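Sanity check. The docking grid for fe (iii) ion depends on where the pocket ends up, so I'm generating a full predicted complex first rather than guessing from homology. Inputs follow.
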Amino acid sequence: NTLLMAEDAWLLKGYLLGNGQELLAALEQVIQQSPFRHMLTPGGYSMSASMTNCGSWGWVSDLNGYRYQMDDPITQSPWPKMPAIFFELAQQAANSVGFEHFSPDACLVNRYGVGAKLSLHQDKDETDFSQPIVSFSLGLPAMFEFGGLTRDAPKKVFLLEHGDVVVWGGKSRLNYHGIRSIKAGSHPVLGECRINLTFRRSQ
Ligand code: MD3
Ligand code: FE
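Predicted complex below; grid placement will be based on this.
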């Protein structure tokens, strides 16, 4: 069940449904080593979603800006290894829409409580924009806003639900996007939260 959201952007509805428990068990191991934390924006605001990372590189934000780094600033140790099940499913999802040999070196984990959001932005802290981005949605549903190459371009809204995967590449790689404030609710497994795993080739 593959839906085209825009040019070079695919929504794989329910792609993870057979692997939910295995993914969550692997995520528990990651969080034990590098816990969720609220990062600061360069402007000094606390982000409403909390975050952690796994893989060789992790995305961080603080008063000095946005960047990828190999050490967790809290533990001052390398980020946890990316679980094999994460890597394999992300690579397989990318491959299924035509991106061969996607080899993510970074997995950002975003945790949204009820009311958390992610304002409209572009992802441009990576070095090679020919590599796609793959995202896994788990837990509560979210309204994903997907725009164009300028902040004011028209936006489409998509519902991302537990088990969904999205692959963005090519012409959509630098499009503005964001997550609207998460509505109150409870997911049978994750409770009152949404978790998003975002896989990238950062270097
Ligand atoms: C669309 N995360 O971490 S999915 C992010 O659901 C981020 O947590 C959202 O935006 C979330 O940066 C959205 C990931 C995503 C990542 C990159 C994109 C969507 C994208 C690049 C272009 C278009
Ligand atoms: Fe993003």
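Relevant for the grid: The pocket of MD3 (ligand 1) is lined by residues 108, 110, 118, 123, 133, 135, 168, 172-173, 175, 177, 179, 196, 198 (CB under 6 Å).
Also worth noting: DSSP finds two helices and 13 strands in the chain.
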